[in-house]
Design brief:
- It contains eight helices and no strands.
- By secondary structure, it is mainly alpha-helical.
- The longest helix is centred in the middle third of the chain and has 46 residues.
């Protein structure tokens, strides 16, 4: 017989409830009133849809900037090839010098475009990330392993920014999922093996960290390059970082849209009746 409460798990008590719903009822007796987390901080549901759309659009701009950088990189590499050929020929002509200057300008512009797109996207993404985190506290206040302040701060603290944001994203995802699954993970929070895998988050985070590390390695090589061969090799590394960044941006778009849809669906079909924030 299915549980009379969740209609999902097998009933194990004489009241027709499953173990998960029995545990949930025990939590509810000591839980803060709806709209507040376990530490008493306000946590009201707010729609993340608008911010998600803006984040997705800006991630598209990031992809466009990376594609432009890839094209500019090929222009630089073509010029480097011409320069290497000229070393064994009649020397550098005025046309080749102009081409080199044009290629250098194109690549510099691509770098500024990438930086502008990244900054704008980071601002909007963090606003969205904070909102879905607060929503997740309303859905499931007990499964979060990091405090709310790390939702933004975790991205800027050296070293821990390599895994804190991912951990927060996993908690948000779990809290925003199916009710019975989230409650089950609440019960087994200390057992990491009991939590489901998260291929979308893991894929996005792996590509993001890889793009950062490769980008740092490539940038160091680029700024230290003097000869045509060195510049050509550094550009190849930077182009690899761009490809990884494009892949990470695509995965980020999927992550943002999927998580937003999960929260929107849960908010529309959930059982919580939350107080509205005061004006």
């Amino acid at each position: 017989m299915l549980c009379t409460e969740c209609q999902f798990n097998t009933a194990t008590t004489s009241d027709g409830l499953c173990d998960i719903c029995v545990t949930a009822a025990a939590y509810a007796q000591s839980a803060p009133r709806p709209g507040y987390t376990s530490n008493g901080r306000p946590a009201y549901l707010r729609s993340p849809v608008g911010l998600a759309r803006a984040t997705g659009a800006l991630l598209g701009v990031v992809i466009a900037a990376d594609l432009y950088s890839l094209w500019a990189g090929t222009v630089v590499q073509d010029v480097m090839e011409d320069l290497r050929s000229a070393e064994f020929g009649v020397g550098y002509g005025a046309d080749l010098v102009r081409e080199a200057e044009r290629a250098d300008t194109l690549y510099a512009v691509s770098g500024w475009l990438q930086m502008a797109a990244l900054v704008a996207t980071c601002v909007v993404f963090l606003c969205w990330f904070h909102r879905v985190r607060v929503n997740a506290e309303v859905f499931e206040p007990y499964i979060h392993t990091k405090t709310r302040g790390w939702t933004v701060g975790g991205w800027f603290v050296p070293v821990v920014n390599l895994w804190f944001p991912r951990r927060i994203a996993l908690d948000i995802w779990d809290a925003s999922g199916d009710r019975s699954v989230a409650l089950d993970r609440t019960m087994t929070l200390g057992d990491s093996s009991a939590r489901a895998t998260h291929p979308l988050i893991n894929g996005w985070w792996t590509l993001w960290v890889a793009s950062l590390l490769v980008g740092r390695w490539a940038s160091t090589a680029y700024w230290g390059a003097e000869e045509a061969d060195e510049i050509d090799a550094a550009i190849s590394r930077l182009m690899l970082a761009d490809v990884l960044d494009i892949a990470a941006a695509v995965m980020a778009i999927l992550f943002v849209l999927r998580l937003t849809r999960m929260q929107d669906t849960k908010a529309r079909t959930g059982e919580l009746t939350l107080p509205q924030p005061s004006a």
